[in-house]
Amino acid sequence: MIAVNSLRLRLLVGAAIWIVLALAVAGTLLAALFRGHVERRLEAELATQLEQIAAALERPGAGSLILTHQPSDPRLRKPYSGFYWQVDGAEGPIFRSRSLWDVALRLPTETSPDGKVHRHRITGPEGQQLIALDRTVTLADAPGAYRVVAATDETELTAAAAAFTRTLAISLGVLAVALVAAVAIQVQVGLKPLHRLRAGVAAIREGRIKRLEGSFPTETQPLVEDLNALLQRNEEVVARGRTQAGNLAHGLKTPLSILANEVDRLAADGASQLSAAMRGQIATMRQQIDYHLARTRAAAAFDVPGARVPVAPSVAAIHRTLARLYVDRELQFAIEIPADHVFRGEQQDLEEMLGNLMENACKWARGRIAATSRHDDGLLTITIEDDGPGLAHEQQGHALVPGARFDDNVPGTGLGLAIVRDLATLYNGSIKLGSSTLGGLRAELILPAG
């Protein structure tokens, strides 16, 4: 189905309008030309009959006027056939065609007897509308003038013109359909490079290619080049943002490490209370640096065209790392991630979110951890569950607040779930916490599917 705002529809409708208008004008002109041609042919035929009748008029000696011969057209002998002739004298009709039967043609009297042929529209037998030609002739051996008339029914002209118009309308209609079909094919061929361009942009969005490749028409080549340049520029900006974030992290963490060493010296010199307070502030600063750098890196990479990451390899890599890290706890992992499930985003962001969720599950699990995923309506839902103590319903919302902790005996900064929430929000996703069927916490990470 073609959209209302489609360029193809605009071209087709515009071409169809111009074709219909052009053919309508051409049809009107052709119909008028044909009618004029038929009318001239009829008048030529009538003029010939006039000449034949005028040439047949004679008055031998001092006798009466005679007609030596009549036109041979059989229609002139059939009553009310629509073809007539008549000769009028000073007293009225003298001769007339058999087709007039007992009716005489009534001619206008304003015609001057100049010997020229005059054209009239008159009423004939049975109310017929006639086209009539008349001419006044004189005979060398006879006094006075005689008016010779030849007439034909205008219906003949109208019928011929109507038949031609019907045939012409059908022919032009077929021609219009053929022209519109030709325009549709031309539009399809002409817009094919735009279809390639759209398919290329979709491929970039899906991560199948990084640049538009191939040759394009001169009109669209600048657009292709500008788009490729924009993609290159975007990659450079993302890379520069990550580099700057890394440099900032390095620049801040190094002084913090120096401060931590100085705090240890204070503790060795007996200032344990002061060193403990400073150590707490340094830990808070490190947490905030990690938290905001993660947000900054994700924001720089958000919605990068072409970013697509299979979920299963990332989950497998995190699983291997955590299995080695918690080898002494003998945790059992149940991972069911289909190979065709893909996240539309950056790999580092996906691993940051999954790493925080799976590590959090490892910290609290008693022995079992499960990771599954499902794909629904363009969304990817990754579920991480454990068999730990879980969280009460009133604690689940607070767990997503930066720095929230519920057990100081378990190592952590309280930023993991907050980072996951912020990263998911940047991708128009979300995270939901609930109770697991294993008995512990269930975390559902909802992200755009690739």
Indicate the topology.
Layout: H1 7-56, E1 57-58, E2 66-67, E3 83-89, E4 92-96, E5 118-123, E6 129-138, E7 145-153, H2 154-190, H3 192-206, H4 221-268, H5 272-301, E8 309-310, H6 311-325, E9 332-336, E10 342-343, H7 347-364, E11 368-376, E12 379-386, H8 393-398, H9 416-426, E13 430-435, E14 441-448
Parallel strand pairs: 9-11
Antiparallel strand pairs: 1-2, 3-4, 3-7, 5-6, 6-7, 8-10, 11-12, 12-14, 13-14
Helix pairs in contact: 1-2, 4-5, 5-9, 6-7, 7-9
Q: What does it look like?
A:
The chain has about 450 residues and is α+β, with helices and mostly antiparallel strands. Among the domains are: about 100 residues, Beta-Lactamase; about 70 residues; about 140 residues, Heat Shock Protein 90 (2-Layer Sandwich), CATH 3.30.565. It is built from nine helices and 14 strands. The strands form four sheets. Strands 4-3-7-6-5 form a five-stranded antiparallel β-sheet. The protein has a five-stranded mixed β-sheet with strand order 9-11-12-14-13. Helix 4 packs antiparallel against helix 5. The longest helix is centred in the first third of the chain and has 50 residues.
